[in-house]
Amino acid sequence: MKLYSTNNKENIVDLKTAVLNGLAEDEGLFMPIKIPKMKKEFFENIEKLSFQEIAFEVAKQLFSEDISVKKLKHIIDETINFDAPLVKIEENIYCLELFHGPTLAFKDFGARFMSRLISYFNKKETLILVATSGDTGSAVAHGFYNIPGIKVVLLYPSAKVSKIQEQQLTTMGGNIQALEIKGNFDDCQTLVKQAITDPYLNKILNLSSANSINIARLIPQSFYYLYAYAQIKKINKKPLAICVPSGNFGNLTAGLIAKKMGLPIKKFIAATNANDPFPIFLQTGHFKPKDSVKTLSNAMDVGNPSNFVRILELYKFNLENIKKEIESKSYNDEATLEAIRELYKNSDYILDPHGAIGYMGIKEFIKNHNKYCGIFLETADPSKFTDIVNKAIEVNPPMPKRLEKCLDKEKQSIILSNQFNDLKAFLSSV
User: Which residues are catalytic?
Assistant: First the structure.
């Protein structure tokens, strides 16, 4: 696979370089020069395949020039080894549950796959930097835990992640270090980008990123969109719309890549919380980043989503073509609580606040377009947001034992300002 920088199309690299560097030297994001199409027969028979078989076929199309088929099969079997079931919620509305992995969040799919890919290509000690607004950090920490030759530094915004998320971020130990940044997620993301492109740090360290700015974490997320289609194909023949709760827009971009590969999704709905630059962009044609604001769906608290530029690239910067395939709307905290309350009352199903945003987005879309069936992504186990869920329905969702265990561990983090010089000094001493 050959990839180019979104800041310079003549800056072309191979997959190994894109994976290990994370970000281009010119601070652009890497994009595939060509996204291959899956054969028509693949989609005609996709419902007969398992999740692992689907992921393997897609991975072969994308990566077989760079990785042996045997090694790809091993990586898929090792990382895509938990389910992503489709659950019927209401008539023509289904939930794709993406929280059955080790850290109970959708980030497990990309983080685990990426950790094996980096390990495969890596020939010297590497420091992985990760900005997280919640679930990315714990998924990456778990995915890279005790992998030889790799250290991970997690940057998370102080007092802006849930208690359970913070425990998952700060209690791993080993080769995982958590930095509690006095700022918001956008500050953390900016710090990571500055560090990865800093000449001095690159002279003394071998740096990479595990955020969705790294193509190796983003592409594997396309696997579960195809698996969702395989499941819906058996039970509902209507045209398909998928609603993606969106913050940094990596998850949506992964779905769009799946569509470019031939997946017959007719519409995407990018549902956001109060951090709404993308819905405004679709309405006005102008993208204006904002300072992120804190909401109940904290993993989506992103005011300047990195992957926005990738969406522009996929549609060749054509706003009208984007609007033909993507709709977007924002929902506030009050609506989020009401959605959790409504679905629990009507269907006895418990949503987390991010899934609630997705549910509202697909419900509104199906109401206005009844020729479709719809899937929304439930991105985290509701037990990770017990306080919010309890506020809505006065019930605590069941907590898996693996989550209970981390609550008893001692938090280990270092507090830093949001100034790059402080991060640079810390990394220089790692």
Answer: 107
